[in-house]
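Tutorial handout. Part one gives the primary structure; part two gives the three-dimensional structure as tokens.
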Amino acid sequence: MTTLPLEVSKAKHIHMVAVCGTGMGSLAGMLKASGYRVTGSDEHIYPPMSAVLKDQGIECRNGFSEKNIDPDVDLVIIGNAVSRSNPEVQAVLSKQLPYLSLPQALSQFFLQGKKTVVITGTHGKTTTSSLIAWVLEAAGLNPGFMIGGFVKNFKGNYQLGKGPFFVVEGDEYDSAFFDKGPKFLHYRPMYSILTSIEFDHGDIYKDLRHIQQAFHQFIQLIPSEGMLMVSGEDSNIKEILGDCRCRLETYGLDGTYDWSARKIEASKEGLSFDVYYQGSQFGSFVTPLMGHYNLKNSLAVIGLSFHLKLTREDIQKGIETFQGVKRRQEIAGEVDHILVMDDFAHHPTAIKETLSGIKMRYPGRAIWVIFEPRSATSRRNFFQKEFSQSFNLASKVIISHPIGLEKIPPQERLDPAQLVRDIGLSGTEAFLYQNADEIVSRIVPKIQSGDLICVMSSGGFDGIHGKLLKALQNR
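Part two.
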């Protein structure tokens, strides 16, 4: 195994600034499990992350202060939401303490000496990462992994792993105030799946071409003996593959790609399908996941797993027993045959594909969509037109007024009222409400037995799922 850098190899006490984010909290747990003393600090400390950190014996201090940098701190890991003006950052720089970003730390502590499997792309990263981690686990290979979602099979989002593989969800967002490059450039990819490329993260990328350049940089890091699986249906990916030096294979739903699917059948239990590899039947598979987009994610995992030397039977077992990821088409509860679903979708394409999958699994149900534009991109007007065209499969659409809109320059803001008008012009009834409480009070009296309510938000949305279920029970 490669020797750790000096500042890492000598570290005993590691402090993490902004420890309560999903990625930082996971890394804190991994470091603690590896034998380091770990402390952290953050604003707005609340469950479940605060409880998770406490259970792991990680001291989490409320608020940022130079006093949080104890005299015996050897190394500081700084989250990407932390600015140069943060008092702990200033203390770290003044004391000349070694510091790393999250992706740098993950790479230096856990990826050296591993065969890293990096799953990246605009859509489907979390589900695809979780799926291949579980397929490897089900095959007895005990992979390490760190993923940006709670994987139900593992009851968590990370594992140290003793096997040769380490699975990473490769995020294209920037790394830290001192490292504005995408996180995935730190992850030492040997094998990778690239699911899709679309414009996103408008707060750090100028346009589609800018994002394509980042993914092109990533592809250049895969060694010639490595492998890249890409969606053959994505023209934005094709444009950056010209000088790819590693083995390259494609996947998609028709037979023009290396890996394809036929005899696709949907039911309430999921999807069954036959997989073909370069024109020859590879095997029959069943997945509990819904939608053609998850079928494509499964194809990518099947293809890459084959090249990782897993048997067809092991791959079939992993695909069939995958339980999914929290907040990805997750049923939060059911009252009077009314389903309340939680989903993370916040990009127009993700919304459209999610609704297509719901329609496939639950034909005949009326679908109410409650959408909270919450991310830095969705609160801006980058997708003003695209959002209006992404809800066509819904029966009714509720838009929640975006929080913090006043912090965005007026010329850049999403216009939620216009969005509602445009959705209505496309033939779907839509409404704009101020917050979760108003939404619940307005729609619960109108929901009928057999309907499905899909809440789409990249945040907690003020506990709207529980409020909906309670109001439905009490009506």
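Part three, for discussion. The radius of gyration is 22 Å. Residues 388 and 422 are 6 Å apart (CA to CA).
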